[in-house]
Design goal:
about 15% helix; about 230 residues; 10 strands; alpha+beta; 5 helices
């Protein structure tokens, strides 16, 4: 299967200077427009999608290769779409409780129309060396603005880990709070949360501490991971 890689940046439908408020939720923070996805090309992939000889050249420093970001088509989006049951506080897919890998954090993206996409993060050295497009937070929405993005784990339909870690969209703590207000019922009692801000990374354990974060009862709470 041939891989087509553009040399031009993919422009967002809404420019960074035209950030729009969430009209359906008055008073909420702005939507996240994110940065532009760049797709560089220094070598042509063959019919199988591989770039012959790219690995040794890359490792020797003779060539830089960025395979770009994979953009999903409609069928691919449906395959990773997860349905939130706000009444019962569960995440489901194909009428079954949704689960992720216990050992791996999955990416999640919420589109501007409220659809939740959960997918594995495929971004590693092999893919960069051999010209395989990477899965990013912008992949399900093809680089368009989103309401929220980050990493999560889910077990038996309940969120066991959540954060606001998206280098593309860079959600703030307020974006994370507003997401948690909507998805509060879907958090497991022992849910762990990691918060990323411009000056520190902290972890908050347990639903009671997460509730304090949501309601802004305390500030700078949680165990400091790095600063």
């Amino acid at each position: 299967m041939s891989v087509s890689i553009s040399t031009k940046p993919v422009k967002s439908a809404i420019a960074n200077s035209d950030i729009l408020p969430l009209t359906d939720i008055p008073g909420r923070p702005h939507i996240l427009t994110g940065k532009q996805d760049y797709k560089k090309e220094y070598a042509k992939p063959d019919k199988s999608g591989h770039v012959k000889g790219i690995a040794p050249l890359r490792m020797l420093g003779f060539i830089e290769y960025n395979s770009g970001v994979k953009y999903f088509n409609e069928n691919e989006r449906k395959a990773i779409e997860v349905t939130p049951d706000f009444k019962n506080g569960l995440l489901a897919k194909n009428n079954k409780l949704f689960n992720t890998d216990d050992k791996t954090e999955f990416m999640y993206t919420i589109s501007t129309d409220g659809k939740l996409y959960i997918l594995r993060k495929y971004s590693n050295r092999y893919m960069r060396l051999y010209g395989k497009p990477n899965n990013k937070h912008s992949s399900p929405v093809c680089g368009q603005p989103v309401k929220m993005a980050g990493m999560m784990k889910v077990k038996h339909g309940k969120i066991t880990f959540i954060d606001n870690d998206s280098g593309h969209y860079k959600p703030t703590l307020d974006h994370l709070r507003n997401f948690l207000k909507d998805y509060r019922k879907m958090l497991s009692p022992d849910c762990k949360m990691r918060t990323l801000s411009w000056h520190s990374k902290r972890q908050i354990d347990g639903i009671n501490n997460i509730d304090s974060f949501i309601n802004k009862k305390t500030s700078h709470q949680g165990r400091l991971i790095s600063s």
